[in-house]
Design brief:
With about 270 residues, this protein is α/β, with parallel strands linked by helices. It contains six helices and eight strands. The strands form two sheets. Strands 2-1-3-4-6-5 form a six-stranded mixed β-sheet, with helices on both faces. A two-stranded antiparallel ribbon has the order 7-8.
């Protein structure tokens, strides 16, 4: 059994998925429960993996007033991984998040949609998987189930036309009788922020069945699908994705604090 440290857990839907797949999950501090990752120290050699979704607001395309907090917390994720020195880590964030850089780890970026995990909401999540041995993960995607439903967003609790609490929980992979001792708005926010449990289980299985990068060829578009023979891309959609990227010029800029990021311009 692999022992995993979950940081920035919130109510830890990501950790619930890993637990359901046989991992032992230990949860670190979170602001939701009065904790602070900045005062958290972890000894090396006790955890096989580290998982977590650091705050993403500053990396959102709709945020025009970044505070720097998300970047600070991303560095805290890097610090904890460096201190714990696990065999692997998994970071959840938005597609615009900068690359994490941790000495000794090879890092793979990939997107995964809830619809590819047997769910009914069309919710895209972005991940970075790092490993000391260079291994990679290949999530097993499944065909969409049923007609798509509206995404479960953290902000839904503040809306007049919000869905019922049992329906909202079910959409995120929780039992319909799940409950939290919080205000209505806070409950929806906590559940809506989480990685859906079925998606977390798909990722946990991929971590268990991770592949050696020396014997594995992945799609060039970064979807982490396997390719064989002379193929470099798995699907026609992957080719279209690469064509769109070729139409984008990346401009490297330095923001205050000396951090280099890439800004995309059409």
């Amino acid at each position: 059994m692999e022992i995993v440290l979950s940081i920035f857990p919130g109510i830890d839907l990501l950790g619930r998925g890993f637990e359901a797949e046989g991992f032992c999950v230990v949860r670190g501090p979170d602001l939701l429960w009065g904790g602070d990752i900045r005062t958290f120290n972890v000894p090396a050699g006790h955890f096989d993996g580290v998982i977590g979704g650091s705050p993403c607001q500053d990396f959102s395309g709709s945020n025009r007033n970044p505070t720097g907090y998300s970047l600070e917390m991303l560095h805290e994720f890097e610090r904890v991984v460096l201190d714990a020195r696990p065999s692997w880590f998994l970071l959840e964030n938005v597609p615009r998040v900068p690359n994490v850089s941790i000495d000794g780890y090879s890092i793979q970026r990939l997107d995964l949609n809830a619809r590819e995990c047997g769910m009914r909401q069309v919710r895209l999540r972005h991940f970075q998987f790092g490993s000391l041995d260079g291994s990679v993960i290949v999530p097993v995607r499944v065909a969409p189930m049923g007609s798509p439903l509206k995404i479960a967003l953290a902000t839904e609790g503040g809306k007049v036309d919000r869905r019922g609490w049992p329906d909202f929980c079910e959409l995120q992979g929780l039992p319909r009788d799940f409950d939290l001792s919080m205000s209505v708005t806070a409950k929806y926010h906590a559940v809506g922020n989480g990685v859906p449990v079925p998606m977390a289980r798909v990722l946990a299985r991929a971590v268990t069945d991770r592949f050696s990068s020396r014997s594995t060829r992945l799609c060039l578009c970064g979807c982490s699908r396997l390719v064989e023979g002379r193929k470099v891309m798995a699907l026609a959609a992957c080719r279209k994705r690469m064509e769109r990227r070729r139409s984008v010029t990346e401009l490297t800029v330095t923001v205050p604090g000396g951090v280099t990021v890439a800004e995309s311009r059409l």
